[in-house]
């Protein structure tokens, strides 16, 4: 993986240069969180931490980087020397990949010298926003498929090679089971899958000859694309001829794929033809711009589809292509003294939560049923009854007391030198376990219920104290 330390915005260097001169002994604590859920959902699947760890392990500036920055005639020699000799002095805590997280909850918290921590903003947001977005879209699509396997087919429509590679990884975290992307399959241990393109069929004298050549080449991996000419009058009948010959030779046909046309109607008729030919085990795959809105419609019509190949709608999260995660200063530390910080906005929902925090998931005692999250200051101990405030600033009924619960902390300290880069299917399994703990109504694709996220009374009081202090300054 190439060094991404220069993948940042110019103002990050400009601020870091100023921090180095004016606040050289001050450390900053920054939270990464988001406010709005894509596709009007209720949560986001956290993804990208493994790449964040890789980037931070290798964060440095080589001679060419420093020479370029010097050529801008913007920065002090002392700052450029610091970059040339850069040694990362930041700590990180984060929620694990695959965890469902809710608005305003920190996915990652960074602490380090202001000049260093500021330089991390853009690259970390780039990684976490993208991969969490795709994992979330994949979760929606796999949920819509109702247990049928989802194959990731989107490399050619992704916005560049990195988006294709890491988007595939994120899609698997969200629930996909395989990919057509060979580089992603190789790098992340994902099963590679695929059939053929229409060009294979077109290159042969006839569709039957193309299918026969494929079956001869791949007798135990014969999945045939049947919509090049006519699905029901040509594609499926020719596939049946080839599949019968394969079975007679002791091989097991895999299936057919339909990539165009009225997929609900065509799959029903294809199923009838396959079953009548004594091939009930042959599977039917659908592809062609599918997503979590099209798949339920197909299944509602009774389309006998066994799995789905999903391309552009998943790898780009086409219906909601942005997760607007932000990187906000929550506190500074100078000579060991912690000072909470806040951004106050005319838009009340953009006012930030100050201080170093921990997120807790609350479970009903003795169960794995999550019913709420609570954000607390890191040095707080949660005891019952717990006085809390709804974290949604637009909520009407804000104050209540929680009594019976088991609180599980969600953020974990990450050791950059030893942090394992987990197997992507282990992360997927973790995600599925944590999704199963959430109330069913929060997982709906349309009009999901809001999951309660609270802040402790102490954290709420700190926020209002800082807001009041700001008002006194401006009045």
UniProtKB/TrEMBL annotation:
State the species of origin. Lacticaseibacillus suilingensis
Keyword Membrane annotated: no
Q: Which family does it belong to?
A: Belongs to the NAPRTase family.
Query: Which reaction(s) does the protein catalyse, per the Swiss-Prot or TrEMBL entry?
Result: 5-phospho-alpha-D-ribose 1-diphosphate + nicotinate + ATP + H2O = nicotinate beta-D-ribonucleotide + ADP + phosphate + diphosphate
Q: Which GO terms describe its molecular function?
A: glycosyltransferase activity; nicotinate phosphoribosyltransferase activity
So what EC number does this one have?
A: 6.3.4.21
* Protein name, per record: Nicotinate phosphoribosyltransferase
- Identify the residues that the record assigns to the Nicotinate/nicotinamide phosphoribosyltransferase domain, covering every copy: 150-339
Pathway of action: Cofactor biosynthesis; NAD(+) biosynthesis; nicotinate D-ribonucleotide from nicotinate: step 1/1
Instruction: Spell out the Gene3D superfamilies in the cross-references.
Output: Aldolase class I (3.20.20.70), nicotinate phosphoribosyltransferase (3.20.140.10)
Where in the numbering of this chain does the Nicotinate phosphoribosyltransferase N-terminal domain appear? 6-129
The UniProt PTM text for this protein says: Transiently phosphorylated on a His residue during the reaction cycle. Phosphorylation strongly increases the affinity for substrates and increases the rate of nicotinate D-ribonucleotide production. Dephosphorylation regenerates the low-affinity form of the enzyme, leading to product release.
PANTHER family registered for this protein in UniProt: NICOTINATE PHOSPHORIBOSYLTRANSFERASE
Identify the taxonomic lineage of the organism of origin.
Answer: Bacteria, Bacillati, Bacillota, Bacilli, Lactobacillales
Record's function text: Catalyzes the first step in the biosynthesis of NAD from nicotinic acid, the ATP-dependent synthesis of beta-nicotinate D-ribonucleotide from nicotinate and 5-phospho-D-ribose 1-phosphate.
Q: Where is the Nicotinate phosphoribosyltransferase C-terminal domain?
A: 357-462
Spans traversing the lipid bilayer: none
Keyword field: Glycosyltransferase, Ligase, Phosphoprotein, Pyridine nucleotide biosynthesis, Transferase
NCBIfam families found in the cross-reference section: NAPRTase_put, PRK09243.1-2, PRK12484.1
A Pfam family: NAPRTase
């Amino acid at each position: 993986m190439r060094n991404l330390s220069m993948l940042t915005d110019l103002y990050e260097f400009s601020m870091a240069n100023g921090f180095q001169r004016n606040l050289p002994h001050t450390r900053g604590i920054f939270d990464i969180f988001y406010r709005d859920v894509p596709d009007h959902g209720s949560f986001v699947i956290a993804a990208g931490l493994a790449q964040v760890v890789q980037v931070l392990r290798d964060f440095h500036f080589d001679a060419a980087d420093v020479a370029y920055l010097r050529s801008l005639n913007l920065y002090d020699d002392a700052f450029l020397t610091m970059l040339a000799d850069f040694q990362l002095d930041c700590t990180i805590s984060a929620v694990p990949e695959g965890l469902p997280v809710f608005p305003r909850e920190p996915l990652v918290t960074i602490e380090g010298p202001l000049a260093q921590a500021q330089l991390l903003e853009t690259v970390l947001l780039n990684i976490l926003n993208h991969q969490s977005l795709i994992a979330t879209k994949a979760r929606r699509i796999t949920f819509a498929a109702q247990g049928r396997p989802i194959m990731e087919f989107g490399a050619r429509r992704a916005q560049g090679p990195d988006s294709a590679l890491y988007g595939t990884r994120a899609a698997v975290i969200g629930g996909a089971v395989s990919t057509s992307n060979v580089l992603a399959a190789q790098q992340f241990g994902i099963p590679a899958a695929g059939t053929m393109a229409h060009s294979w069929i077109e290159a042969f004298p006839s569709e039957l000859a193309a299918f026969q050549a494929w079956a001869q080449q791949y007798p135990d991996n014969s999945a045939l694309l049947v919509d090049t000419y006519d699905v029901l009058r040509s594609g499926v009948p020719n596939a049946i001829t080839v599949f019968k010959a394969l079975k007679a030779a002791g091989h097991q046909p895999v299936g057919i794929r339909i990539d165009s046309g009225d997929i609900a109607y065509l799959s029903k008729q294809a199923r009838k033809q396959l079953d009548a030919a004594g091939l009930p085990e042959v599977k039917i795959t659908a592809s062609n711009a599918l997503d979590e809105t099209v798949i339920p419609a197909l299944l509602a019509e009774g389309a006998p589809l066994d799995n789905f190949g999903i391309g552009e709608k998943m790898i780009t999260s086409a219906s909601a292509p942005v997760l607007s995660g932000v990187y906000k200063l929550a506190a500074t530390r100078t000579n060991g003294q912690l000072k909470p910080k806040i951004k106050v906005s005319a838009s009340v929902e953009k006012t930030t939560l100050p201080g170093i925090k921990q997120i807790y998931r609350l479970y009903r005692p003795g169960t794995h049923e999550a019913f709420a999250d609570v954000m607390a200051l890191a040095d707080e101990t949660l005891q019952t009854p717990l006085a809390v405030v709804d974290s949604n600033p637009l909520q009407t009924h804000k104050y209540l007391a929680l009594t019976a619960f088991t609180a599980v902390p969600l953020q974990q300290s990450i050791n950059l030198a030893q942090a394992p880069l987990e197997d992507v299917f282990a992360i997927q399994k973790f995600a599925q376990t944590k999704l199963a703990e959430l109330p069913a109504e929060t997982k709906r694709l349309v009009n999901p219920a809001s999951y309660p996220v609270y802040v402790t009374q102490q954290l709420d009081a700190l926020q209002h104290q800082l807001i009041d202090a700001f008002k006194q300054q401006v009045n």
